[in-house]
Amino acid sequence: MSALVIGLDASTTGSKAVAFDLEGLAVAEGRALHELHCPQPDAWEQEPEALWGSALAALTQLSHALGARRHEVRALALAHQRETYVLSDAHGVPLAPARSWMDSRARRAVARAERELGARYLLELTGKAPCTTPALYKLREQLDDAPELRRQSPRLLDVHAWLCWKLLGRPVSTTASADPLGLLEVQTGRWSPRLVEWARLDERALPPLVTPGQHLGGLTPAVAASTGLPVDLPLFGGAGDGQAAALGAGVQSLERWYVNLGSALVGGGVSRRCERSLAFRTLIGAEPGTWLLESDLRSGMLAERWLLQLCGQDSAPARRALGEEAARLPPGADGVLFLPYLAGVMNPHWDDDASGCFLGLRSHHGPAHLYRAVVEGLALEQRLALDALAEATGQRASELVLVGGGADHDLLRRVMIDLSGRRVCRATTREVSALGAALLAAVGCGLYGSHALAQAAMCHTREVEPPSDAVETHAAQLEVYRGVYRQLQALGHSLQRLRDVPLTPPSTPGG
Q1: How many angstroms separate the CA atoms of 368 and 276, rounded?
Q2: What letter would DSSP give residue 205?
Q3: Bridge partners, residue 294, by sequence
Q4: pLDDT tens across 193-238, in order?
């Protein structure tokens, strides 16, 4: 009998619900967008009900697309944007906008945590060096700045718990979903009492945790009626989108890395040991008993979007024309180098005050040179992350699996191939996070007896073009790039202090 499983990926800007067959083929999908707001510099927020609304709309579209095949659906699981969280009252009513993983207002809390808890202690306990990305620091700063919110005894919900409250009628998360919040002991998968207290929370305010793939219950009658999906469709524990993407890309060890060329440039390999290092961040894996050793550049394809908007060429035709012009330029962008730290840098430097910059600009350089430099900067940074992980673990990845929308970017893909020094292939599905969630559902409901069997059947890749004759040029470029951050570090911090100075309006004569 044929069977389908659904992966619902609630990402940063929208939700995608995809039904896969047992060979990993996407047979139908639904999509819906939700907004991301920036009310002030460094502040990124979303409306919790909008997150739920897009998820519900995506499931409804998928159900309609499936038509008579709805009865073949056996299970559903979630993948979702990480670190983003909702604070609600005891009845699930949001008390404030959701703070996004992109929000970086928590610099004061990061500095305080380093003083009071210690950076080494936090790395060993959580697997993550202190920075503004984990919710731990956002929570402390938010609740310190809004004592009236704290007095309401808020409940903490990651995106998994928030959606489960809507889908099931109760909040529940998984170790692989809640771990990026920075409040778990990464070795044991339990909430850390010390960190929960430090964040100004009560343990009773936390969602219960289960392992990914555990049966959580069935859809409520109201959700089933609204979407058209089967009543009591089983929901199984999911994972953060990064851990789900590794699963959906067929990654089982540190010998194969996935690289997600999305809004952020994220990559990682799977370890059976809970290793910690400043070279990466350690996350509880989607498969129980594993950990994802991950690199994360917060300004991935966002850097490309920023440049296109800056140059007034963010329409699809203008982007194509600029990309084609950049591809005709020589490797190395005619001496222009880009440091892609538009949102600071996580591994290996862990510097929220780091800045992006162009180096080597001359009067003959134009938008195409800048565009090529941005693309090469992303690939250079990814190569440094690969080398740092290999040095820290003693294991060198021999293969990369490119996923995400950026994998369709011809120039970025070619430069990544030339710079990586590894065999490069692409996942055959665009929605690897949704596939990873669907794989958890398939194992959870017994359609496959293990994650390895499910990956062998459902995860597929294809090779891409071989390296070009630009490899030597990029190798020389890499040697220059390796030292750029250290040479500019002090300057970046000085510039951050200038940005932190409140602006005062100029005085006027007689004023």
Answers
A1: 40
A2: G
A3: 268, 281
A4: 999 999 999 989 999 999 999 999 999 999 999 999 998 999 999 9
Residue 266 Rama label (left phi>0; alpha psi -120 to 50; beta): beta
For 80-139, give the DSSP string.
Answer: E-SS-EEEE-TTS-BSSPEEPTT----HHHHHHHHHHT-HHHHHHHHSS-S-SSSHHHHH
Q: What CATH number did the domain enclosing 63 receive?
A: 3.30.420.40
Residue 321 DSSP code: H
pLDDT at residue 1 in the model? 54
Is 299 part of a structural domain of the chain? Answer: no
Closest CA to 277 of 482, 395, 123, 114: 123
Instruction: Please identify which residue in the block is written with the tokens 């008993």.
Output: 289
pLDDT at 511: 40
Structure tokens at 69: 């095949």
pLDDT at 491: 86
Taking the alpha carbons of 416, 422, 427, 432 in that order, is the dihedral positive or negative? Answer: negative
Structure tokens at 141: 């700063």
Query: What's the confidence (pLDDT) of residue 501?
Result: 61
The domain in which residue 121 lies consists of 4-242
Q: Report the domain count for the chain.
A: 1
The pTM of the full predicted model, rounded to 2 decimals, is 0.93
pLDDT in tens, 326-342: 999 999 999 999 999 99
Q: What share of the chain is helix, strand, coil (3-state, %, to 5)?
A: 40, 20, 35
Task: Tell me, yes or no, whether 208 lies in a domain.
Answer: yes
Residue 90 belongs to some domain of the structure? yes
CB 459 within 8 A of CB 268: no
What is the DSSP code string of 259-294? EEESSSEEEEEEESS----TTSEEEE-SSTT-EEEE
Say how many residues make up the chain.
511
pLDDT value at residue 494: 86
| CA distances (Å), origin 38, targets 43, 46, 280, 300, 302 | 5, 9, 28, 18, 14
- Tell me which H or E stretch contains 334: none
Residues of the chain with confidence (pLDDT) below 50: 503, 508, 510-511
Sheet strands side by side (includes 281-284): 281-284, 291-297, 265-271, 256-261, 399-403, 423-427, 461-463
* Dist. CA 156–CA 183, nearest whole Å: 11
387's CB contacts (< 8 A; 6+ apart) are none
pLDDT of residue 177: 98
Q: Domain for residue 483, yes or no? A: no
